[in-house]
Amino acid sequence: MSFRVLAGMPNSEAEMVLAARFEELGTADLVATRPTTSALLDAAGEFPELDVVLVHQDLGPAPVFDAIRDLSHRHPQLAILLVSTTMDPDTFTGAMEAGARGVLSEDAGIAELESRVAKAAEWSRTLRRHLESASLDLPASGVRGRIVTVSGAKGGVGTTTCAVHLAMASAGAGRVVCLVDLDLQTGDLPAFLNLRHRRSISDLVDAGDDITPGMLSETLYVDPRGPHVLLAPEHGERGEDVDARATRRVLSALRSRYELVIVDCGSIMNEATAMAVELADTAVVAVTPDVPAMRGAQRLMAMWDRLQIRTQDSVFSLVTRHSRRNEVQPDFLRQLMGTRVLRTPVPANYRALEPGENNGDPTKVTDEALRRAFARLAGELNLLNAPDGGTGGGKGGVPVQPGGVGAPVRPVRPSRDGSPSTRDVSGFLNATTPDTARSPSGGHPAPPGVSGNGYRPGSGVPGGSGGFRG
């Protein structure tokens, strides 16, 4: 059986040269080539039994070492070889640290190409056999986890409300969920969940390329009601530290340890939210049935398309504040916007949301129409089912079930002592000492202190944030 090789080549000339060399090889097949890093990441999950990935040093638009690191995190069984024009020590060091198996010269001969590919492929197949024989249970593996982003067409359309309730519905169905607040200047998750601000995503920016479970355990909040939570910085100016590269590292680390990562992107596009939308398996835009919101959604999706972040046909619109008395109905909105609209709208029942938002406890929302709406939305977005063994590929990789599930939200199963269960398969709770303190704001465990691994997270100023926000 021939070895199967995928390649990322920056231009057609390099692609033709490589294809001609592989035609002379009898031990390896070039199954596909891709011209960009994002297309290469997508393709790595499309071809079964892939052995080797060749990544050219000039491949873009993302930095090539970041692309290699992302590939090795998502597909640890693949052998990655960097095709380089410069064979200097810095290139070797950068490639090895990113997760490549070796560096291959761009002008390598047929014999060297065949030898290097064969050795890399043998390593890949040996590792795959070990993984299969071990029958590893990876419910929250980076190869399995899904990322869903929720963005707002404009401010006030209910982006955070939808993200919170989708996370609660998914956790209630037994999924291991992380809720990320990427609205870096005006994030409201502390108010919605009654959390004190001590750690945030900005504390992970200086963690380097290897974000360990210990670092995450000190930064994430374990909400007893289900999802783990990664907050935005308390002070908006700290959000500038979270750039595209940092966002990629953080979300890749979360994807490798959670079944589901739901990201609240807010209504403002920046480097961080653009990277999150590009990495996401499913991207959702919340829009109210009015002309300003629809125009805002069209501008946002058109910008994503122009910047090659995500095409419009791979985005789902979620209608909020729906009422039969509205002048614009979901079917008409679908025709106006030319996008896919989720079948289940969120009803315009503002008063029913007040108990949850004013008290910082989403479980206090008892209105059946709202609960059914969020449960059906979670079903439509395929958030209630366990990951299927496919890989998170970004840009719309997870299909939406037609018609939605519409199953009621199952409550989180209580533990023996009567407290809600926080089933943890990610390993975070055991990564550091289990000595956690209860937060006085809502009974949520506060992150443990700084561990002895040399990581020093920044210290936010604690402050209560529950209650009514006008």
What does this structure look like?
The chain contains 14 helices and 13 strands. The chain is an alpha/beta fold and 470 residues long. The strands form 2 sheets. The protein has an 8-stranded mixed β-sheet, sandwiched between helices. Helix 6 (159-172) crosses helix 14 and helix 9 packs parallel to helix 10. The termini are far apart.
Largest sheet: 8 strands, mixed
Oligomer: single chain
- How do the strands line up in the largest sheet? 8-9-7-10-6-11-12-13
**Helical content, roughly?**
25-40%
Overall pLDDT metric: 74
Judging from the principal axes of the Cα atoms, what is the shape?
Answer: elongated
Number of strands: 13
User: Ends: how far apart?
Assistant: 66 Å
Total helices: the number is 14
Could you tell me the radius of gyration in angstroms? 23 Å
The assigned structural class equals: alpha/beta
Strand content: 5-15%
Topology readout:
Layout: E1 3-8, H1 12-23, E2 28-34, H2 37-44, E3 52-56, H3 64-74, E4 79-84, H4 89-98, E5 102-105, H5 110-134, E6 146-152, H6 159-172, E7 177-181, H7 189-193, H8 213-219, E8 221-222, E9 228-230, H9 244-255, E10 260-266, H10 271-279, E11 282-287, H11 291-306, E12 315-319, H12 330-337, E13 340-341, H13 350-359, H14 368-380
